[in-house]
Sequence to fold (420 residues):
Amino acid sequence: MKKIVAMLASLALVASLAACGTKDDAPETPETPGTPGTEEPGETEEPAQGVTDTTIKVGNSAATSGAFAPVGVPFNAGIEAYFAMINDQGGIDGRTIEFTHIDDEFDPVKGKAALSTLVEDEKIFALVGHFGTPVVGATIEDIKNYGIPAVYFATGIGQLYNDKAEGNERTIFPVQPIYQTEGQIMVARAVGDFDAQKIGVIYTNDDAGKDLFSGIEEKAKELGVEVHAEQVAAGATDVSSAVTSIRNADVDFIIGAAIQATIPTILKELAAQNVNKDVITTYVNVSPVISEAVVNEIDGKFDVYGLGWVDLVENADSLAAFAEWAPDYATNVYAMTGWIAGHFFVEGLRNVEGTLTWANFIDAMESAPIKNPFGGEINFGDGLRAGTQEMNMSKIAMVDGLPGWEPVDGLQSMDSLLGN
Fold:
């Protein structure tokens, strides 16, 4: 079970391996019933596109062929399984959910074309499970310009983060961890769990590292915590200068704001220079690959902690329902994330008041926090678009005689960590 929890982090990593595609000019916004702000006072609202008396049509594009098919196929299977469960229960307000899909092959150009087809030709009501860093990066502004709701993004890129979304920016509903938010949670952990007042940060010069550092800076400034930061190249094989600077700064605690290609190098160099300060890193690194790579080097010198965003042990009922409806993918973590995507969309539907329009659905998504079936709550209220806001913590240790990650603390929000 611990292995499954750790593996769930890999979706963000896989999606981050390719650079964002080049964004073309955004399409013209179609005149679609339900677009936020289009209803005149006193008008009778009509349902949005994709909504009939008996059905709600939604869709996405994802890589279901090519190198990323082992991620995209089970991801979509998880979405379809969740909708099948809901439809078997009679749907939502008598409407069943229809899911359509276009294979974009993880190609941003094809992803842009697929978005146009889904919105303008297929007339879907919403995007559910928008997939992969290059496609999301290339289409995010197009989605906003359409005004169509988009629930769950299989990436953690910074373009999704917004602490006060307004207008059509409100159409975006990220669920998976966003690096800026995770950076803030790392600081809250450092202060709340380790009483840190001076934090050393080693971050990479790629999007993941810079987005994590952005969140770290923001939270540290808010809490009045000193930060000593060093940047290294993503994939660097020599980080000795950065580590020496962190060691000489006499910090209380260290954040490793780098993903799997770089974090082992950082941890090994910290150990080589006899640094004895504990380290925390992103959930993407909570995998057996990382623990196996560094467990011997760090032994007796410092602990390495990692964040996580699900708890399958505490949510055994949700896991059982998932396994029942997706038996072919019962232990597949990518299918689990698809299940989460379907859940968040349906919970929004349940909260809609009045006619099912885009505007009313967006209001419903913001009306109350939504619980992740495998984790904590996410609050979209007041325009907050921060993705996962509660994370747990584990540390590298020998587990059943093998290098792994040992649970340390359950899911907590920043407020709970800081005693607010």
